[in-house]
Structures are given as structure tokens and as C-alpha cells.
Amino acid sequence: MADPLTRDEFAAALRGLAPRYWDRHPFHRRLHAGGCTPGEIRSWVANRWYYQTILARKNAAIIANCPLPEVRRRWLERVTFHDGSRDGEGGTADWLALADAVELERAALLDERHVARGTRFAVDGYLHFCQTRPWTQAAAAALTELFSPELMAARVAAWREHYDWIKPEGYAYFQNRIPVVQGDATYTLDLVLTHCRTADEQQAAIEALTFKCDVLGAILDAVDHQGGVP
Question: Which end of the chain is least crowded, N or C, by CB within 10 Å?
Fold first, then answer.
């Protein structure tokens, strides 16, 4: 039986998956370089919307599968971030504002007519993963948040520079999410390092984060193949 990694080795293995994150995807690089058409940006927003809609549910699944009340209480904040404390608030509402800012018809966003099949399969697979796997693996999958704050900040700067037609109020989601995800990443990493103690548990956590990176990459594959939307 393999010996478990030390805490530092385990953390390094998780952080070492950064090259698999979707910031290196050709579509993402084109998006940040100013090379996307308005239709392609709307396609990204529409497909990412489908991902956004499952985040509160996948976080609720982690809570449901976790036996530790202190973790459930802390993780509940993620549900509230996306759903808001009331209608018209939270990350979902901010994403609707982004759709308006890129002139994507709201009815088209809500009825998911522009969601690519590849996106749907990838996102549904991620939700199923979090509902059926041990909570530690689902938490480890969320560790893409280790890599996301800098990317979101770079996205806002790049979009302001290259896509001046996007209305400023559309940036609310990223501006609100960046400081929250920084704290979430620190908490989640400590949680996974603490509760994944055996070599098998550590390997499962690494594979979970790898899977999540592949989910995000699959979304961009689908968006890139789809091209723009009207």
C-alpha cells in the first residue's frame, strides 16, 4: 500500500493541476486577447449560464453528503452566494445582468436555446459527480477556485480594453465573486488537506480536481465549436 503524501506534497499535487485549468484553452486566450466576436461572447455567456445554474445545487449536494455540521454551516454560504438571500440577488442575478450587458436576449438565456450539447453533458456530469461521490471528492473538485481569482480579474481588464460595447454593469458577477472565491479557495484547500488522509483518498481528490478541469475544458470545446449566437 502506498504511503500518503505529506500535507505539503498533497497541496503541491493539487496546485500542480493548474495547467489543466481552462485559462489555457485556445478559446479563452482568444477571448482575453480581444479576438472574439460579439456573438462568440454571447455564446460563452449563454453556455456558462448553464454551468452557473447548477452551482447552488452542487453545493447543496455537498452539504447533504457531509456529516460535519461545521463544514455544512460554512459551505451553506456558497449556496446563498449563488441563489442570493432573496429573488433578484446573488450570483445568478449578476449573471443575468451580464447577459443584458452583452445584449443577449434574456428569454434566449433562460430557455437555454444556445446551450451546446457538449456543455449540457459536461455540466450534468459534474452535478451528478457531486451528488453521488463522497463529499471530500466533490469539495476537491471545487478547487478550481485556486486558479480562478486571477483569471476573473484578468477577464474584467481584458474585456474593458477590447470590448467597450459591453455595458459596465455586466461586470458585477466577477467583481463580487473575486474576493469571495479567494477566501473559499483557502478554506477548501485546508479542508481537503485535512480530511483526505490516506493515499487512496488523496488520489481520489486529485482525480476529482482533474475531472473538474476537464468539465470546464469541455464547456469551452463546445463553445468554440458552436461559434457565435445572434
Answer: N
